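Can you please make up a protein's amino acid sequence together with its fold in token form to help me picture the idea?
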Amino acid sequence: MDNSICQVYEDEIQSLEEEIKFLAEKYEDSQQESTFFSDEEILMSIKSFQREFQGESKGHEFSSDLKAQLESLETDLSFLMKFTGIQFTSHSKKTVEKTRNRTVRKHRLSGNCCSLSFQLEFQLLEVQNKENVSAVITDLSIIMESGEDSDVSKFVSSTEEHGNLLTFFRSLSSYAEWYEHRRCTFLHFK
């Protein structure tokens, strides 16, 4: 009877080791397929692009126009981040399916708004007709640290059902601002 118990444990250990190996390989594959860009990496890429562009464009007249456009875009991005309070910390994009007129990409976003962090995962279905491209969000999944607030859980569930990211970000910005005010108020009274 002692040998049978040992055999059961050895089989279980072997099964777990195989599962760990499989999951490790799957993790490595997913890391290679997706790319994550932090704020620092984005800024380094912009600066690298600017250096390359300045080196290549010494004889070109249009460099000042492109440089002005880049500075304008950086200013707009900075303004939007300050205005909404939403900062994206990472993004990954993976093409799941691609045909002649249809593309499905899986996106993962993570970031924070004031002191609330969030993660989004969704698929973007792009269908190209003769004249235009239409995009539809499917399989939206939102992970948010809402604590025990049932209203936020209901809101997140509703947003996932409807797949409306614009509503999510508008509401998140407003909710996070008031969440921060409540948190500071309660800290003041403690």
Q: What stands out?
A: The two ends are 61 Å apart (CA to CA). Residues 84-189 form one domain.
